[in-house]
Design a protein that fits this description.
AB_hydrolase_fold, alpha/beta, single chain, Alpha/beta hydrolase, 8-stranded mixed beta sheet, hydrolase activity, hydrolase, 9 helices
């Protein structure tokens, strides 16, 4: 682990006819190996990663990059509903623009929840340009437990106080962010979504981390991801953790990710 704190820098990335994306980088003075790009969850943002990007940069000696997807955090608002193909669209339409702006030729990925699915889609298309992939609490398919957890969350977000807390990170976009999550995942058009088509194309080492008590998906998800990954994969089930193990068991997850990325190099 390096003793030098990473230098943080903000970036604004223009999208053709759709506004701007907000991104932030954390660069240690000893930066080496491929940068690590973080993909946030359905309610997430750069700010909601909290201290994890800086900790990852220091622990791994890599530049760490996080960006707010269009419609989230400090990125510009997004109109309309998400399509049932939004996970693949992030990989095809938006992530390449981020790479071009930041000059990324090779990268490693870490994705939380739906961000893990996006990481799988991105890595499958990137071939050997993606050097490693970590998924945390990623969904591999739409499980009954997933739908039940999201339905419960939808009911909770009818409370104005819950929405106000989310608005601290998404501003006036908070209602759109909630609806983009709940209404997409609970729609009949999304019921047969899965990552199966991408998994065989993975050429990089993979680590699928999952909380034992995840309320949005059983351990069938990491097991399926690791089993079908083209280059094989490892699973790490975090005892006592729910859907955000990198916050609930921060030191354990950070150490596991650090070890995995060092071995992947």
């Amino acid at each position: 682990m390096t003793d030098t704190a990473a230098i943080a820098q903000e970036h604004w990335i223009s999208l053709p006819q759709q506004g701007r994306l907000y991104a932030k980088t954390w660069t240690p003075s000893t930066a080496h190996q491929a940068p690590l790009v973080l993909m946030h969850d359905s309610l997430g943002s750069v700010a909601l990663w909290r201290d994890l990007p800086a900790q990852l940069a220091q622990a791994t000696g890599r530049q760490v990059i996080a960006y707010d997807r269009l419609g989230f955090g400090q990125s510009d608002a997004r109109s309309g509903t998400l399509s049932a193909q939004f996970v693949g669209e992030e990989a095809q339409l938006y992530f390449p623009v981020v790479c071009q702006h930041l000059g990324l030729d090779r990268f490693a990925l870490l994705g939380h929840s739906v961000g893990g699915g996006m990481g799988i889609a991105i890595a499958a298309g990137a071939g050997q340009d993606c050097t490693a992939l970590v998924t945390i609490a990623a969904q591999a398919f739409v499980e009954d437990r997933t739908r039940a957890g999201i339905a419960e969350a939808r009911a909770l977000f009818q409370d104005a106080a819950q929405l106000e807390r989310l608005a601290k990170y998404h501003g006036s976009k908070a209602r759109w962010v909630v609806d983009a999550w709940t209404e997409t995942w609970l729609s009949p058009a999304f019921s047969d979504w899965n990552v199966d088509a991408w998994l065989p194309g993975l050429q990089c080492p993979l680590l699928a981390i999952h909380g034992e008590l995840d309320e949005y998906g059983s351990t069938a998800h990491p097991e399926r991801i690791a089993r079908q990954a083209g280059a094989g994969g490892q699973t790490e089930i975090i005892a006592g953790a729910h859907h955000v193990p990198h916050r609930e068991m921060a030191e354990q997850v950070l150490g596991r990710v650090q070890t995995f990325l060092a071995q992947a190099d």
